[in-house]
Design a protein that fits this description.
Layout lengths: L2 H8 L2 H5 L8 E2 L2 E2 L8 E7 L7 H13 L4 E5 L32 H11 L3 E6 L9 H6 L26 H18 L3 E4 L11 H8 L5 H6 L5 H15 L18 H27 L3 E7 L6 H4 L3 H6 L5 E5 L5 H14 L6 E2 L2 E3 L8 H13 L4 E5 L8 H7 L1
Parallel strand pairs: 3-4, 3-11, 4-5, 5-6, 6-7, 7-8, 8-9, 10-11
Antiparallel strand pairs: 1-2
Length: 405
């Protein structure tokens, strides 16, 4: 099977529909919804876009409310202005990490939450998780061993140096503490996990030692594929398909018996377990404090799971998040329909709300009519809501369109 065929088959709707042991409440690809259930709309944004004035923030929130938006997800740690020493800070009033010098004396995140609360708009604050500036800078300098080490067998790794090792307990505790500070300081309606993945498969000393305890040399395992990264990815993906009982996706309905590597499967399962444990910890915390937990995830499951440890199907089945926001930024309406249908089936036995993430960004700026077409598609498939990336890229013409939907 060539690369193109593999992508097409693994990404096909058959993947979702072929999971064994699933019950279905879907007819003709559409979930039955009660007419009274409202269709909700949300937007992502960056806190650096709100470093304006309280009056201007109120005007922005008025525009959202008039468009029927009931959820905004602001990112509080998109790197801000450079410090004199070359570091970047975060966009909330943190006592745990460096605050960006462009963050004003008054507190924009506090104002955003207050103005949204006045307009019945929920706020889920997001961090870039294991890529967060709060895990870099002085804290990284104190704990250099926490930097993720990615394989370079296949050439320079573009993610090198940009991520912390998500498997390490110290890193997970640091990220949890950053989220907890946001909750205790601002009391938002929810917290949001973005970049809730690992960048690539980490091979740091901690990961190496943990797998050595069970007799697996991850460097030797990776070395088996030194001449063919694609074979590594295919073998790892087949391991995920076997785990979930998929039998009608690859080829003519059978998984390739040659693509089996039990040690690779065991290593990747350990990574998935570690990531899922953090998500579970976050969900337990938000539930305890009356908040919601949402997550932005990549749509091409399961192919990205080996590199990112982002097994969001598991998070859905175990109800570890309240909202699953599957990012699908594309002008291709057929892709929007297919990915939405796949995700619906993958999550059909969970309680999680699936809100497709659609693109309205600087990379692709659809007309209000084109964006409306995509929203109508995902709504017709039975999703309870939609979220758009991102609010600063939206125009005045988008909000009347949203109000009509």
């Amino acid at each position: 099977m060539n690369r193109r065929d593999f992508l097409r088959t693994v990404g096909s709707a058959a993947l979702a529909g072929s999971l064994i042991g699933q019950k279905t409440s879907w007819a003709n690809g559409t979930q039955e919804r009660t007419p009274a259930q409202p269709f909700r709309k949300g937007v992502w944004a960056q806190m650096r876009e709100f470093l304006i004035s309280p009056e201007q923030i109120a005007q922005r929130m008025d525009r959202l409310a008039e468009g029927g938006v009931s959820l905004i997800v602001p990112g509080a740690d998109k790197p801000g202005m450079l410090m004199p020493d070359g570091r970047r800070g975060v966009h909330w009033a943190s006592n745990l990490t460096t605050v960006s010098p462009d963050y004003p004396d008054w507190d924009p995140l506090k104002v955003v939450i207050e103005k949204c609360r006045e307009r019945d708009i929920d706020v889920h604050v997001w961090l870039r998780c294991f890529k967060s500036p709060g895990i870099k800078g002085p804290w990284r300098e104190q704990h250099p061993e926490t930097e993720a080490q990615f394989p370079t067998l296949w050439g320079p790794n573009k993610y090198q140096g940009g991520w912390a090792c998500a498997m390490q307990p110290r890193v997970q505790k640091r990220l949890f503490d950053l989220f907890r500070e946001i909750h205790e300081r601002y009391h938002p309606a929810g917290l949001h996990l973005d970049f809730i993945r690992t960048g690539d498969q980490c091979m740091c000393d901690y990961c190496t030692a943990q797998m050595a305890r069970v007799g697996i040399d991850i460097h030797e395992v990776t070395g088996r594929y030194a001449d063919d990264r694609w074979r590594w990815l295919m073998t790892a993906t087949h391991g995920m398909l076997r785990k979930y009982g998929v039998r009608t996706v690859v080829g003519k309905g059978e998984l390739d018996p040659v693509l089996v590597d039990e040690e690779l499967d065991q290593w990747l399962q350990w990574r998935n377990d570690r990531m899922s444990a953090f998500v579970a910890q976050m969900h337990a915390y938000t539930q305890k404090h009356g908040m919601e937990l949402s997550a932005a995830v990549k749509y091409f499951w399961p192919r990205q799971v080996p590199t990112g440890a982002q097994d969001w199907v598991r998070w859905g089945r175990e109800n570890l998040v309240d909202y699953m926001m599957v990012m699908n930024y594309t002008p291709d309406v057929e892709l929007v329909a297919r990915v939405t249908s796949e995700t619906i089936t993958l999550l059909q036995d969970s309680k999680v709300q699936h809100w497709p993430g659609l693109g309205r960004s600087v990379n692709w700026a659809p007309s209000p009519e084109a964006l409306a077409e995509q929203i109508h598609i995902v709504r017709s498939l039975g999703t309870p809501g939609v979220i758009i990336f991102q609010e600063p890229s939206m125009t005045d013409a988008d909000f009347p369109m949203l109000k009509r939907i």
